[in-house]
Prior knowledge:
This protein has helices at 11-26, 29-40, 46-72, 99-114, 145-148, 153-168, 171-202, 206-216, 218-235, 239-257. By secondary structure, the protein is mainly alpha-helical. The two termini are 27 Å apart.
Amino acid sequence: AGCEKEPSSYMWIYILLGNMLRGIGETPITPLGISYLDDFAKEEDVPVYVACLHTIAMLGPMFGFLLGSLCAKLYVDIGFVDLGSITITPQDSRWVGAWWLGFLIGGATSFLAAIPFCFLPKSLKKPEEANNDKASYDYSPLIMPCIFQSQLIYPFLSDFYTSLKKVLSNRMYFTFLCCSLLQFSSFFGFLTYKSKYMEQQYGQSTSKSNFLIGLTSLPPVGLGIFLGGLIMKKYKMSIVGATKFAFTMSFLGYVITLLHFFVGCENHVVAGLTVSYE
Length: 278
């Protein structure tokens, strides 16, 4: 009982608020970026541009894992204690890396990357000959006046509800949405616990595990996204063709993933857990 005490650090609150602000800032990039590419690019070039956008998005976590690997090699209190007095190494289970350093580097980089957005024009001229059949609605008058005129909020919510209903009633899109939820749920679950699995089963340090994941898991995903965009552009696939292509690739991916059931490692012998103390 003397070893039990309540945690006194509230650092998790800052991490929570930081991730919330990061999500608010990053979320518009994907829908608005894809919408911009779809409106201003040639129809046959859109798959390649969208593939490039998602490929770059996959390279970010890769560099994040590599940065995490570097930070994990540094002691958590770097700059505040004499590193010469530290008697443990990163291979020791008691080692705690400088996890906070990655947040500072990533935050500063994100801030610098956001500066060029301040110099973009307020509005862009849309080519008249491109995508004339696509309906658009200008929400710019609703941004600031809605703060002072609450009655302008209701038309916005009404249009949003109508658009959402149309999207969710589209059977092909709704099926694609469900498939995406299942795919990303399995992918992120695999990616989250893979590092800990490598540490426990192969005796790797946290730094080495993050380095291997960043170098082996994410680059093939980015390469696959880019190649998929090139294939769609080359064969000029329609909606039905793209659906068949996605189904074929997903089915092959699931078949290969089933091989994981035949590959594994035995649990370590731990007294009192996997074997008796005797």
